[in-house]
Design brief:
The chain is α+β, with helices and mostly antiparallel strands. The protein contains 3 helices and 3 strands.
């Protein structure tokens, strides 16, 4: 939910790409699509954004992962 809330603060389109055996792309601004992504710890993910604030969006969203969503 933190990811979706932050993604929705940007104008850019945000996509999360799940790698591995069952690849899938999800709209990073959609709670339902992010749930369907079913990314558990260790799942390879990529964040992509397209739009006027795309670089900042990717930077801030990636920081959530680096900060372990504030759960450490």
């Amino acid at each position: 939910m933190q990811f979706v809330e932050l993604a929705n603060q940007f104008r850019s389109r945000v996509t999360v790409i799940k790698g591995g055996e069952d690849p899938y792309s999800a709209d990073g601004k959609s709670v339902m699509q992010m749930i369907i992504l079913a990314a558990t710890e260790g799942t390879p993910l990529s964040i992509a954004a397209d739009g006027e604030d795309a670089d900042l969006a990717v930077e801030k969203l990636a920081q959530l992962f680096t900060d372990k969503f504030g759960e450490d």
